[in-house]
Amino acid sequence: MRLFRRKPAAAAGEHPRPAPPRDDLGNFIIVVLDSCRYDTFMEAGPRVITRLGAPEARYSYASWTAPSHYNILMGLMPHTSPVGVFASEYYKEDFLKFNQRLGASGIEFKSLVPRLYLPDYLRDSLGYRTHAMVSLPVLNSFTPLNRGFDTFRLMDKHNDMRAMLDLMTFPSDRPSFYLLNTGETHYPYATPDEPENHWPRISGVHGVFKHLDDHARTGAGREGEKFFDDSQMAVLRSRQVDAVRWLDRVFQDLFDLVPKNTWITVTSDHGELFGEGGYFGHGPVFHEKVFQVPFLEGAIR
Which residues pair with 129 in a beta bridge? Predict the structure, then answer.
């Protein structure tokens, strides 16, 4: 067994001193379209986002928001599914792509050892300013995800990516890394211009933690009950398509904002079920559509 020598721990609340910035590094942004499945993304036909590159159908490492973001922040982007390939070789090739994303050289999996956390590596080894803005409360700043970030903010609204853009800055003394988790494509698939009283409401989804015990006592969702009707599922899926089209316009503002030499990766943390196989949503679900996500990336030159 290979052992890694632990470095002396910093004092409580203290961050290691960031490395001096390198001249060859560019800004890096990861945008996670929460719950956006691949086929609804493609049906939306976004024209602005796809300037970054051709969308790929990839697979998330997890079917729920928090563990999927943890994988992404380990540097494990949603994966392809190649046959006849050892996992170790796939990871090796996947991590080498960070050289292109960052405009760097010499980045491979062992660069992240022993902490295996991308924000730590970017800030403490490469000198990045690191920031996260998230829309979903399960990603709030008290969770273990908030490590290696100079700032970590849960947004006031769960569905307003444009509000994130108002907070983004790119000082010239150091490159910047941003994680943006956007909630427009998450249930109830609402854009910020839509009044809340127009949002769809599905019993058992709103206030899930608050009413979880009541749900269990009443036996809601017993085997044999029809959970949702097909027309309702079609409406919800169309709302996610419309949310992608809304976000496509917001991405134009993002592209106008960022400096040249910025790499942007766009993906999703997981997909969503709209009635397929009797499922709705995501989480404790094993179905291809809850793992299949869009993935595309490219540079703003």
Answer: 176
